[in-house]
Design brief:
The protein has 848 residues and is α+β, with helices and mostly antiparallel strands. It has 22 helices and 31 strands. β6 (172-177) and β7 form a beta hairpin. α9 runs antiparallel to α10 (299-310).
Length: 848
């Protein structure tokens, strides 16, 4: 615009500024044109100078000329001597935020009204004034008064301007409907939106032009507006006939009536909100992705969540494939050549995803020219139209894919790489076939954002899966693969790992055959979860087996185990391994059962009490003395010895069985349920284990659970023979004779020669090196067990005898003739034992 044009435009609006004291501070050309004063004549004078006198004023108007000088002795409210007209602002007073009397500002920063002003020639001028109360950047407050100069307002009969503004408006789609809701007039924007010229629209209803459910909804709202007069606002998404892209419209409906109130029809104005609608959809999709993708630490589920979020919000079909090398934990070069990918998940707007070529779990090799291979090679999303040469070249040799493209009308594809931490994981492919509009650049950006979110979650899930798989493998390798063969107890066990959130724990159990047909049962729980807990569990299990092998009593065994846990905690503090802490602790329960005496000795270290169900149906918790958890150090562990009748059921378990989070750790309730479960009839101990777990645990336990059930057996007295031996070397021959005789009774005459040698060596050593009383005992179990006890405390040991030594070869001979041998301490003295293999029936009927 030229300077002359700007000057003319400035003269069409009168602009006056007035300070807080009521003095004129600004005066433009429009104000000079309106009132005839120049800026030099009026700036600095009171604004009340501009007010015309009221018609009832007794003072005559001043003559034409300059305004009265300051200090004129006329009333303060009017320089002309006339009082201010009713309802007009007292211009001689300072203007404030508080509305003056008669001026309805109502606390607003803007006022508007009609003022009667006085021109320089004395003639009154009626002006519609808009006053703004302003605060400048410097903090100074003033008033800006504006009004249009008479003759400057546009003429209402400028048909060309009105025609363009209404009929040819490119932005606002406007239509007028009669009382029957039929089109009367529509501007060009409405005609373009509806896809028809006005000649075809006139006389039709919107449901005739767009026979859709949404158009019928709009028509119902138009009817309500026509009846009630209440304006309506509706947002609608529709596709104009002949267009492939949907448009979102914000439509306002209002009733039209004449000056007499007669209803003439309904007018509608619509604005194309497509871009805003698409932006809102993208934000909603991103927000949905942030809450839905990665809800679990499962790779397949995370990939499926990506597909479910993208369909149907972004695509009609989505597939997620992972690199075979990624799943194998290897680095894959994507520089060129075909790539093997495994389908992990897919999703379609059609039931059953019929357009999918692969099923989840299938592997396919994608050629170098395919969009999946291209996007993985470049690291950027690839957008293609099916009509382009790249797609047909890729599928030319694949009749199945060609058939899918043809049958379902696939027309637009986006392939997005899935990568996290600089490592390529796989690719997500998005396809459209139901939506007619192809993918746009904004769709690519949105797909990349969804893929980036999913890739991080997939990588986290895969890392977690591998770590947990390693921990579970380690833990299971440290647990007994199968329970050892022994005859003292019928045993069944169960181990359930914790749920995915809690991770792998350190629960363990074991069954350890001991000398004298006895058996040891152990259940323990290491504090914490994960690989560190599993490794600690393995070390403790090995230690327990080692200590049990030397036949330590339960209380003494736990004391040694307590020292070991303390050393492990010290090592953890010293090493400071990543992911570990010095809080190494464990609980443990150790029990030893003797089927000959039916006695069971038990001790515990911070572990739940064992339960026993006796043959008469009574179930109780054995009152073991309370022992501290392992690792505290310096505190004793006391054992309880009790007699278990034949057929008693002993239950050992970890606290995860009775302290479930779903029951708010109600241990008493869990213990009561356990006791009831032990009395329920069951076909076998395995069946009972499953029944106990079903009755006590939720579907996904919050902690590792180990359960060990053992039903006691008793060795028939006829399979045990014992004799007191005099502390005289001559008694050795009698001991051999008695042993051979009992072997004959048992039908084990073939083992007599070896047994004679073992008995001879063990009894001779007890007489020579031990203390009386000496006792010989034979036990016919799965093996033949020979035991010699004496009251001496000296432990035997093998030594290498020189060629000229007369003795020192006895224990070496025993070790060579027996399957295994050893010594165990007793309440008074010790017992030396040896087991030898026997042929023929093992005498299973000797066990009850």
């Amino acid at each position: 615009m030229s300077e002359a044009s700007e000057a003319v435009g400035e003269a069409l609006t009168a602009r006056v500024t007035v300070d807080e004291q009521g003095a004129v501070t600004g005066w433009n050309a429009g104000a000079a044109r309106l009132l005839g004063y120049t800026a030099e004549q009026i700036v600095g004078r009171p604004a009340t100078t501009l007010l015309a006198p009221a018609p009832t004023s007794p003072n005559p108007p001043p003559p034409a000329g300059d305004p009265p000088p300051p200090g004129d002795p006329r009333p303060a409210d009017s320089a002309s001597g006339a009082p201010a007209a009713a309802g007009l602002p007292p211009m001689g007073l300072p203007l404030t935020d508080q509305p003056p009397a008669g001026l309805p500002l109502a606390g607003s920063a803007r006022w508007h009204g009609v003022l009667v002003l006085r021109r320089r020639d004395g003639r009154p001028v009626e002006a519609r004034v808009v006053a703004h109360h302003r605060t400048g950047d410097d903090g100074v407050r003033d008033w800006l008064l504006v009004c249009a100069v008479p003759g400057s307002r546009p003429r209402a009969d400028e048909d060309a301007l009105m025609r363009w503004g209404f009929l040819e408006s490119p932005c606002c789609a406007t239509s007028v409907h009669d009382t029957d809701l039929r089109f009367c007039r529509s501007n060009q924007a409405a005609q373009r939106a509806l896809g028809l010229d006005e000649e075809y629209l006139r006389g039709l209803r919107i449901a005739d032009v767009l026979p859709t459910a949404s158009a019928q909804d709009v028509e119902r709202l138009m009817r309500r507006t026509l009846e009630t007069g209440e304006p309506r606002h509706v947002e609608n998404v529709a596709r104009a006939p002949g267009e492939s892209r949907q448009h979102a419209w914000a439509v306002d409906l209002y009733r039209v009536q004449d000056a007499d109130g007669r209803v003439l029809g309904v007018a509608s104005t619509g604005h194309d909100m497509t871009e805003q609608h698409r932006a809102r959809q993208r934000l909603q999709l991103i927000a949905e992705a942030s809450t839905r993708i990665g809800s679990t630490l499962d790779v397949t589920r995370t990939a499926q969540e990506l597909a479910e979020v993208a369909v149907p919000g972004l695509a009609d079909f989505v597939s997620v494939d992972l690199l075979m090398s990624f799943e194998a934990g290897q680095e894959e070069t994507t520089a060129g050549g075909p790539l093997p990918l495994r389908r992990v998940a897919h999703r379609s707007v059609l039931a059953g995803a019929p357009e999918a070529v692969l099923r989840p779990g299938d592997v396919d090799v994608y050629p170098e020219s395919s969009p999946p291979a291209q996007c993985l090679r470049t690291g950027r999303a690839v957008r293609r139209q099916v009509t382009e040469a790249a797609i047909p070249a890729w599928v030319a040799g694949d009749p199945v894919r060609m058939a899918r493209i043809r049958d379902f009308g696939l027309h637009s594809v986006i392939a997005v790489p899935l990568s996290a931490r600089g490592v390529a994981l796989g690719v997500a492919v998005l396809v459209r076939h139901r939506r007619p509009e192809p993918f746009q650049h904004d769709d690519v950006v949105l797909a990349e954002e969804l893929a980036a979110k999913a890739a991080v979650c997939i990588d986290n899930a895969w890392r977690y899966t591998r770590e947990r798989r390693t921990a579970v493998t380690l833990q299971r390798s440290l647990l007994p693969q199968r329970l050892p063969e022994q005859s003292a107890m019928e045993v069944a066990s169960r181990y359930l790992p914790a749920d995915a959130r809690a991770g792998v724990g350190g629960d363990w159990f074991d069954v350890i055959p001991l000398s004298g047909a006895r058996v040891a049962l152990v259940v323990g729980d290491v504090v914490g979860h994960g690989i560190h807990a599993s490794a600690t569990m393995g070390r403790l299990r090995t230690a327990v087996r080692t200590l049990a092998d030397i036949d330590l009593p339960p209380g003494e065994l736990l004391t040694h185990l307590d020292d070991l846990v303390g050393r492990l905690a010290t090592e953890a503090d010293t090493l400071g391994d990543e992911g570990t802490t010095g809080d190494v602790g464990a609980t443990c329960l150790y029990a030893v059962y003797d089927p000959v005496t039916r006695r069971c000795s038990l001790a515990r270290a911070g572990h739940p009490l064992p339960a026993v169900a006796r043959p008469d149906g009574v179930v109780e918790l054995l009152p073991l003395p309370a022992g501290p958890p392992l690792g505290l150090g310096g505190l004793p562990f006391e054992a309880l010895e009790t007699e278990l009748p034949e057929g008693s059921l002993l239950a050992l378990y970890t606290d995860g069985l009775i302290a479930s989070r779903s029951r708010e750790s109600d241990v008493d309730d869990g213990t009561a349920r356990l006791c009831r479960s032990l009395t329920a009839p069951a076909a076998s101990l395995d069946v009972m284990c499953d029944a106990v777990l079903d009755s006590l645990l939720p579907r996904t336990p919050a902690d590792d659970v180990a359960l060990l059930l053992a039903r006691t057996r008793v060795l028939d007295a006829s399979r045990v023979a014992s004799w007191d031996v005099d502390a005289d070397p001559a008694a050795v021959a009698d001991a051999r004779k008695k042993a051979v005789g009992r072997l004959a009774d048992w039908g084990l005459a073939d083992a007599a020669f070896v047994t004679e040698l073992i008995v001879s060596e063990l009894v001779t050593n007890a007489i020579r090196h031990g203390e009386p009383p000496v006792q010989l005992r034979l036990i016919h179990d799965r093996t033949l067990i020979c035991e010699v006890s004496d009251a001496g405390g000296t432990a035997p040991h093998m030594r290498r005898a020189r060629s000229y030594d007369e003795g020192g070869r006895g224990l070496l001979l025993v070790a060579q003739l027996s399957r295994r041998w050893g010594a165990r301490p007793g309440a008074k003295g010790k017992t030396i034992w040896a087991e030898q293999e026997i042929e023929g029936p093992e005498g299973e009927d000797a066990w009850s």
